[in-house]
Amino acid sequence: MGKSIKLILILSVISLLSGAVLSLVYSITSPTMEAVALENQQKSIFEVLPGIESYREYKNDESMLIYEGLSKEGNVIGLAYVAEGAGFQGRIKLMIGMDIKSKRITEYKVLEHQETPGLGAKINEEGFKQQFSQKPWTEPFKVKDDIEAITGATISSRAVTELITKSLDEVLQIVGSDEQ
Asked: Going along 100-144, which residue ranges are E strands?
């Protein structure tokens, strides 16, 4: 019985120390990881809205992050926004760009995902992303009809398509009918 108690105490001390070390490492690295994620998000605005010189946050009462892409003259030429939704393995987070003049999706950039490597992770590959590039937002976005699904990753393909469709409707409602 004495050996069992000693073993339990040793394992308890090791568990406590391991937890403390993990907590310390997380508290040290968390601000850096958040700063890198914010920097990537800001860079992605310029990627999904090619040709803009700067951007500003669109003021709205909604929780959705929307950015106005500005020309040299300060005119709004596009909108970019962050959209999140459920994928096959977990959350998918996208930055989506919209050209206001042509009423088209410019493109999207994957900010985060937990999709299966080699299958669902292909949502980040140009071949799949190009299907949305320059697509009018007045046209349907439906997998197997006008969007070709990734082989073996229909759920991930559908998740991205539905996320873009749903979030696009939300953005158009937030910014008003003049962009529709």
From this structure: 104-112
pTM of structure: 0.73
Q: Is 173 a member of any domain?
A: yes
Q: Which domain holds residue 160?
A: 45-179
Give Cα separations from 160 to 12, 40, 63, 122, 128 (angstroms).
45, 20, 20, 11, 10
| Partners of 96 in the β-ladder | 81, 108
Residue 104 falls inside a structural domain: yes
Q: Is residue 33 part of a domain?
A: no
A 10 A CB-CB count for 48 gives 24
**Does residue 110 sit in helix, strand or coil?**
strand
Those residues with Cβ within 8 angstroms of residue 24's Cβ, 6 or more apart along the chain or in another chain: none
**Tens-level pLDDT at each residue, the chain (180 residues):** 688 888 889 999 999 999 889 888 888 887 877 777 677 777 889 888 988 888 988 877 667 788 999 988 988 889 999 888 877 777 888 899 999 888 888 988 888 776 666 666 667 677 778 877 888 888 777 776 777 666 666 777 778 888 888 888 888 888 874 444
Report how far apart, in Å, the C-alpha atoms of 177 and of each of 8, 48, 67, 80 are: 66, 22, 17, 17
User: Across-strand partners of 107?
Assistant: 97
